[in-house]
Structure formats: C-alpha cells, structure tokens
Design a protein that fits this description.
Elements lengths: L31 H9 L19 H10 L9 E5 L4 H14 L4 E4 L11 E3 L2 E2 L2 H19 L6 H15 L4 E5 L16 E4 L7 H4 L3 H8 L9 E3 L4 H13 L4 E3 L5 E9 L3 E9 L4 E6 L5 H19 L6 H9 L8 E5 L2 E5 L4 H14 L5 E5 L7 H8 L5 E4 L10 H12 L4 E2 L3 H9 L7 E5 L2 H11 L9
Parallel strand pairs: 1-5, 1-6, 2-5, 6-7, 7-8, 13-17, 14-15, 14-17, 15-16
Antiparallel strand pairs: 2-3, 3-4, 9-10, 10-11, 12-13
Helix pairs in contact: 1-4, 3-9, 3-10, 4-5, 7-8, 11-12, 12-13
C-alpha cells in the first residue's frame, strides 16, 4: 500500500522550566524476565487500595522530567487523545483500525490489559514484543534511576513514557492515546494532540475523581487544549454543562455527536450478521451511511460514532481518509473482554463492565444480541467502585448472581457484596471465594441454552480468559 502523507503536531509548551539533558541508554537487564520484574516493582496506583489524587501522586512535572531525559519522544509524534469513563478502549481501537486501513502507521496505547501487559502498546495491530520491551526498558533504566533518587516515576508513567518512545522509534504517523485515570493529572496529558475525544461520562473511581458527574466531567475536561478541536457524545446535562464551560474557557472548539454532528443509529437483524447496530454520521467533509458497528450494544454504536467524528477531524487536519477503506478497517475490529464468548459448552461470556452505567449497557446489549433461557452472573469488583450502583443494575439482568473476588488487592469481599446486594435488592445470591468455585456453582445451574456472564472487573475477566484460553498468553519473542 502506498504511503500517505504524514502530518506532525506542533511541539507543546512545556510546564517545567528547566531543560534536562537526555540520559544515554545503559544496559541493565540481560533478559525480559529481569526487565519485567523491575517494571512491576514500581509504584502501581492501579493496584494500590488507597490512592490520593493530587499533583504529587499524579505528577505531570515528574512525567515531563522523565520524557525530557528520553529526548521528549511525545513531541515527535502526532496524536489523538481520548478520555472518558466508559468506551475509551473501544473508541480508540475502532479509530486506530480505520486509520490503519487508510495506510497510516498507527500506534495504540490503552489500559488496562485483559491478559498480557503488552496489549497496552500496539503498532498496526501488533503488540510490542518481549525483545522490544527489553530494549525499551534498557533504554529507560538510566532516566528512571536518575529520577528515583528524589522522585521515582510510577509504573503507569514508565509505561506511558515507554509507549511514546517506542512510537517515536517506529516513526508512527499517528498515535491514538487513551488516558489512564481521569484526564487533568493523567500521565498521558503531556501531549499536544490533533484532536481530543471524550466518551460517555458516569460515576467511577469515586475516591479519586469525585462522586458527582460535574466533578468527574471537570477532571476529564482537563485534557482540553487551547484551540485544539474536541468531540464528545451526548452526556447527562450536568456533565455536558461542565464540558461546554471548560471548552469555552480553553477556547476549545467542542462538537457533540447527535447535536452539532449529524449522527443516528438503529438496531437490526440479518441472516449474514445476526443482531447488530448500524450507524450514520455526516459532516460537511464526511458521510458515512449505514455502517455496521463491529461490537455489540447501543453503547458501542455511540462509541463508533465518536470514532468516526474523530476520524473526520483528522481529515480536516490534513490526513487523507477514504470512506470505503475506513469502513473496511472498522469491520475488522474485535476487542478482548467486550462481550467476548470464551467458551461454548457451557456458554461463558466475559465483559469488562466496571461501573453502574457499563453494567446497565451490558445487560441491555446481551438482551438484544445473545439468545438465552436464563443467565448466571459471576460478579466481582474493586472496592473503589460505585458498588451500590453496580449491584442495583445486576438485578435487572441476572437470573442468578454468584459473587466472587479477583486477584486484585482492591477486590471487594464476596460476602460483603452479597450482603449489600441482598439488602439493596432483596434477592438471594451465592458466594464463592474463588473464580473456580464460582464456575462450579454456575455450571451446576445452567443448561445448553443458558449463559454464564463474568463481569465487574478487568482483573476478574482476565483470570477467566486465561482459565479457558491459556493459549491467549503470548510466548516469548
């Protein structure tokens, strides 16, 4: 395929005042296992039970110092930045696939992973290899150790810096970058993107981001950049008012699918594709008609509309986008951990829904797309989530609920989940201390036409995927 034009972003204005000379690479690890152990030994707020959300724990200055020691790789790549509560990974993946189909070399940075750490860093649908990860960690070792004398970088900061460095080395045409937590203080918020996307907002990470939609929206809107276009989807009025106010303050041109951008979707069933959703989106520069959404659920139609709107903004920025090629790229999308059937006998599905809105969307999507007689939900979640909200949604879809725990240190006690569920919903449930025990209970309760759905946590669905599909873990390369 012929190489299309390459566009580059302007170098951003640095927040820190002093320029730090890049540190030369020092080989510290002789093999991948050593490098991985060193990385996993860093402070990881994804795994810590109590995390303060402030400029010390989530420090953009520290992130910029680390990048400066690496030669500022983030300023050498063009990017799209995607924040939000739910649908970030789906939106980012759909956009990346469409750009790749148009001939661009595309970097994709997402989190968390389902099974393997390398899922987070991808170039043109290929995960970073163990050999490449080893080389990158040897390159980052010197800068990490230099900073660690006074202010050690965290696991996520190192992963983000590694991704930017890897993308710069691969000379990608564009990187699709998903935020980790929040937006304003997220490690990825050092980039100067071509366009910003905000997915659906709902309550999540209450201890860090707040327990009201206006507080959450303000944190997410922290990724807005002066003069850089942004696109979002229809939001709760409380959240939308904050996004519009923040966009106005930052002089960020903000567009909304279904409002400023003509967007619609419909559910249908066909012999070829079965139950699915089709969408239409049109702007002065693009027209997409009756595209089939590759992922199940109304929420994925909304995510797909956002991905198309972001694609259109890139087209306006000079990227050469062909609608037919984009549709081909979209049709190739599949995503681990999103309504993924990992076993057929019995039928076992996993989904990474981890807040109330996601559980609601999952139950609705299953009802539309997956025929079943009765559904057993195996549920486990972390203790920093909107637990009452999630449990309240479970009762509307599950014929039977089994509470268990993941391998996360933040995992909520299954007995506490069960007690809260019974108190809130007045329904019976069961408790299992391990996923294996939960699956035994579920298997004894289902027949051929029934469905087992495992959800509530990426940790939990990752455990399930490895259990049913051990080959899904990559071998050394």
């Amino acid at each position: 395929m012929a190489k299309t034009i390459r566009t580059t972003g302007k170098k951003q204005t640095r927040r820190s005042s002093s320029k730090v000379a890049p540190v030369k690479a020092r080989k510290a690890f002789s093999n991948y296992k050593e490098a991985l152990a060193y990385l996993l030994d860093r402070t990881d707020y994804e795994k810590e039970e109590h995390v303060r959300y402030n400029g010390s724990t989530f420090s953009l200055e520290r992130m910029e110092r680390l990048l400066s020691l690496l030669g500022d790789p983030h300023t050498k790549i063009s990017t799209v930045h995607i924040a939000g509560t739910k649908g970030k990974g789906s939106t980012a993946t759909m956009l990346a696939k469409m750009l790749e189909a148009n001939g661009y070399t595309v970097g994709l940075y997402t989190s968390p992973h389902v099974v393997h750490l390398h899922e987070r860093i991808v170039v043109n649908s290929r995960m970073i290899s163990e050999a490449e990860m080893l080389a990158m960690m040897n390159r980052l070792y010197g800068p990490i150790e230099k900073l660690s004398k006074d202010d050690p970088p965290t696991f996520f900061e190192i992963m983000t810096a590694l991704a930017f460095t890897y993308f710069a080395d691969r000379q990608i045409d564009i990187g699709v970058i998903e935020t980790g937590l929040g937006g304003r203080l997220d490690s990825t918020n050092v980039i100067q993107p071509k366009v910003v996307g905000i997915t659906s907002l709902s309550i999540d990470h209450r201890r860090q981001l707040g327990d009201t939609l206006d507080l959450i929206a303000k944190e997410k809107a922290g990724v807005f950049k002066r003069g850089i276009p942004a696109v979002t989807v229809q939001q709760d009025p409380l959240a939308m008012n904050v996004l519009r106010a923040q966009a106005l303050a930052m002089k960020t041109p903000l567009s909304v699918t279904g409002s400023d951008i003509d967007f619609s979707y419909r559910f249908e069933t066909s012999r070829e594709h079965g139950p699915h959703t089709r969408i239409c989106l049109s702007t002065p520069t693009s027209k997409f008609e009756h595209l089939r959404v590759p992922l199940h659920g109304r929420h994925q139609a909304i995510n797909c509309g956002l991905a198309l709107a972001l694609l259109d903004k890139l087209k306006a920025a000079g990227y050469q986008i062909d609608n037919e090629k984009s549709a081909e790229g979209l049709s190739s999308v599949s995503l681990a951990g999103r309504m993924e059937m990992i076993c057929q006998d019995p039928r076992v599905m996993i989904d990474g829904a981890h807040n109330a809105a996601s559980i609601r969307a999952l139950i609705h999507a299953i009802g539309q797309n997956i025929p079943y007689d009765s559904m057993v939900m195996i549920f486990g979640c972390n203790n920093d989530k909107d637990i009452p909200g999630m449990l309240a949604e479970l009762q509307y879809g599950a014929d039977k609920v089994i509470f268990t725990r993941s391998n996360s240190v933040k995992a909520m006690s299954p007995q506490e989940l069960a007690d809260t569920y019974t108190e809130l919903c007045g329904k019976m449930c069961q408790v299992a201390n391990t996923l294996g025990e939960a699956l035994q209970l579920a298997r004894s309760a289902v027949g051929r036409e029934d469905l087992i759905c495992i959800t509530g946590s990426f940790y939990l669905i990752g455990m399930a995927k490895v259990r049913f599909q051990p080959h899904s873990v990559p071998v050394a390369s």
